[in-house]
Amino acid sequence: MQQRKNNVIKLQDTFGDLNSASDKHNREYNIQKLYKRFRSAAPFPKKAYYDGEIVDLLSKTFGLKGIQFGNWLTTEDRYNYSLALYSCLYDMNKVLNFKTKNLGLSQSLAVALGSRGVPNSLAHYEGDNFVINITRYKRKDRLLVPMPKEWRFINTGGSGSFGHEYGHFLDNAFGLWSDQHINGNWLTGDPHSMHKEPLTYNKRTNPIRAQLEVVFKLMLWEKDGNRSAFHKRITSQSDYYNRRCEMFARLFEVYLSIKLKQKGIYNSFLVKRKYVGNMYLTEKEMKPIIPEMDKLISLLRARS
Asked: N or C end of the chain, less CB within 10 A?
């Protein structure tokens, strides 16, 4: 049974009574079989396996506003996407370590799974509504070679995009509420600024924006004043790849993947490179940036 409250669907327990030992064993076995295909063997809370009211568990654990499901998602799809989202938030908080796992920033963020999609987009972030949309997997008849649903769930649609879109949420939410400035409601400020001299912020009144400018300078410029290799790569591409908000979201993806790798965690539903060509910073290029990103995340953590 589904209940609708404040236009957000709550997925209730339609997965059995969850009481018998065989029920629990079958549930955990089937879930582990699926999720081991996109996530490493890092421990996963058994409570999430057994809790039929997975949406309520997600919202309470990570401070989300709610989850919205598309009409074309089956009950099984809704459960699988909800648990995949749980794994993304659970793993991401191992890096961000926000207070009380408050990744939704006190019910500011909502997630739309298989709904609110836009044409030709695998995922997107709605800044006006603070909603991350993850597109549903492709139908079998839309592929050149028909593939089983398990494969399509992991390899098509918005799988691997959540980290990128969450980077947009951080950029928007902290710029709007925690580190306000006339330059705009996003921490990244002027969307097209790639000047050698960073945007100027007062470290006392705008510490987050000031630290982000340190990160951008390292990302775009060498110590000798020449453009970085990354800078040269993206300026030959379309405007989209050169927008500061998009550069930050891609940087955040790489940062997450490196930090999770250090912890022995791999989650391709959370982070998976989506763009052709080398539009991302390499691990070598990230080396001097990581310590400054750590400082940035520490500032965000303090205000989470």
From this structure: N
Cβ neighbors of 84 (< 8 A, separation 6 or more) are 35, 38, 159, 269
Residue 57 structure tokens: 């568990």
Tokens found for residue 112: 């739309």
Q: Which domain holds residue 286?
A: 177-302
* 8 and 143 belong to one structural domain: yes
C-alpha 209/C-alpha 188 separation (Å) is 7
What domain count does the chain have?
Answer: 2
Portion of the chain with pLDDT greater than 70, in percent: 85
Report whether 164 contacts 249 (CB < 8 A): yes
* Vertex 115 angle, CA 113 and 118, to 5°: 115
Q: In what order do the strands lie in the sheet with 66-69?
A: 66-69, 110-113, 131-134, 123-126
**pLDDT tens readout for residues 28-86:** 666 677 777 888 866 667 677 666 688 888 999 999 999 999 888 888 888 889 889 99
**116 and 201 belong to one structural domain:** no
Separation between Cα atoms, residue 234 and residue 243, nearest integer Å? 10
Q: Are residues 132 and 182 in the same domain?
A: no
Contact 289, 66 (CB under 8 A): no
Whether 75 and 21 map to the same domain: the answer is: yes
**Per-residue pLDDT for 178 more than 80?**
yes
74 plus 197 within the same structural domain: no
Compute the Cα dihedral for 130, 128, 169, 163 and give only its sign. Answer: positive
Cβ–Cβ under 8 Å, residues 97 and 301: yes
In this prediction the pTM is: 0.89
- Verify that 53 and 121 share a domain, yes or no: yes
CB count within 10 Å of CB 182 equals 5
